[in-house]
Amino acid sequence: MTDPSVALLTDATIAAEAVTGPILAGALGIGFLLVSAALLMSLARLVIGPDKPDRILALDTLYVNTVALLVLLGIHLSNDLFFEAALLIALIGFIGTVALAKFLTRGDIIE
């Protein structure tokens, strides 16, 4: 007798493989690779960045890359939940970037 959660996971994997053809699967693999590389490079810029504006831009780029990675994962797994998570991260990233830029230019976030 199999575990029901394993059966559901197997069914979801089969459904995801049925939706993605060989061309889409290859494109998703390349997309995962490139977005992951961009994520690592922006993380390096966030750590190394010589100035504060460079670090803020690297943080903004991290948000954008995370959104792209979640969208690719949602396409790969055929799951809408990842698209909603990507939307939330994009909103939080935008608000965070605006707040950091305001703090950097004025020294205070709330006037």
- Structural class, from secondary structure content? mainly alpha
Strand runs, count: 0
Number of domains: 1
Topology-level CATH name: Helix Hairpins
Report on the biggest sheet.
none
Q: What is the subunit organization of this protein?
A: single chain
CA-atom Rg in angstroms: 19 Å
Rounded mean pLDDT is 83
Supply the CATH class.
Answer: Mainly Alpha
The CATH architecture term is Orthogonal Bundle
| Amount of helix | over 70%
Structural features, described:
- By secondary structure, the chain is mainly α.
- The protein has one domain: Helix Hairpins (Orthogonal Bundle).
- About 85% of the residues lie in helices and about 0% in strands.
- It is built from 4 helices and no strands.
- Helix 3 packs antiparallel against helix 4.
- The termini are far apart.
- The model has no long low-confidence stretch (mean pLDDT about 85).
Write out key terms for the chains shown.
single chain; 111 residues; mainly alpha; Helix Hairpins; 86% helix
